[in-house]
């Protein structure tokens, strides 16, 4: 309209319609800009929401992985505990069996030494030869010394050490009694430190 009124020379109406045309054009342009802005705002909000969702998924995956590691650690700790308990029980059982076997061995050694000593004692009584009796008595004394040593090893807490002063006192006392039984007077004085 504005161009038509301008051509007719009605400048006032032409100006009025130009203003309306520009206002309408500005309104349409503003509407277009507002629509573009709204579209951009929607895209921004959608991208922001997607980023939040992605971040939430990452956090959830990390938390799930932490839980899995925690469960795996607990399972490993439980497995180690079970294995440790089993090993301790097995060790105790084997230690008990070894202890029983060791007691049986010591008992048999003691019995064997007693049998040998008894056999030598029988030999001494039945032998008519004084020289042979003396040899048998010396052998019997050696067996008694071994039996005494075995007793000290077995009764101690450590199987490879004995208290030497206690052993020597008992050994000397045994020999002193044996010599006195043979009508020989012996006085023994022992001075020693405690040695293992």
Can you lay out the helices and strands and say which pair or pack?
Layout lengths: L1 H7 L2 H116 L3 H26 L8 H18 L15
Helix pairs in contact: 1-2, 2-3, 3-4
Short description:
The protein is mainly α. It contains four helices and no strands.
Tell me the β content: under 5%
Overall pLDDT score: 80
> What structural class do helix, strand and pairing data support?
mainly alpha
Head-to-tail CA distance between termini:
131 Å
State the low-pLDDT regions, or none.
none
Can you put this structure into words, describing what you see?
With 196 residues, the chain is mainly alpha-helical. Helix 1 (2-8) runs antiparallel to helix 2 (11-126) and helix 3 (130-155) runs antiparallel to helix 4. The termini are far apart. It is rod-shaped. 85% of the residues lie in helices and 0% in strands. The longest helix is centred in the middle third of the chain and has 116 residues, at 11-126. The protein has four helices and no strands. The model has no long low-confidence stretch (mean pLDDT 80).
Output the keywords.
196 residues, mainly alpha, 85% helix
């Amino acid at each position: 309209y504005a161009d038509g009124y301008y051509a007719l020379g009605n400048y006032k109406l032409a100006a009025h319609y130009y203003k309306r045309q520009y206002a309408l054009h500005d309104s349409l342009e503003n509407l277009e800009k507002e629509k573009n802005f709204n579209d951009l705002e929607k895209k921004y909000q959608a991208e922001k929401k997607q980023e939040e969702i992605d971040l939430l998924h990452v956090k959830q995956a990390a938390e799930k992985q932490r839980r899995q590691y925690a469960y795996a650690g607990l399972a490993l700790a439980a497995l180690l505990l079970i294995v440790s308990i089993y090993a301790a029980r097995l060790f105790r059982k084997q230690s008990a069996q070894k202890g029983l076997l060791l007691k049986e061995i010591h008992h048999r050694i003691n019995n064997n030494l007693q049998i040998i000593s008894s056999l030598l004692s029988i030999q001494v009584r039945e032998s008519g030869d004084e020289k042979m009796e003396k040899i048998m008595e010396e052998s019997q004394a050696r067996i008694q010394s071994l039996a005494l040593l075995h007793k000290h090893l077995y009764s101690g807490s450590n199987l490879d050490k004995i208290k030497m002063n206690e052993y020597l006192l008992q050994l000397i006392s045994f020999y002193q009694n044996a010599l006195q039984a043979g009508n020989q007077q012996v006085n023994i004085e022992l001075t020693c430190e405690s040695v293992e």
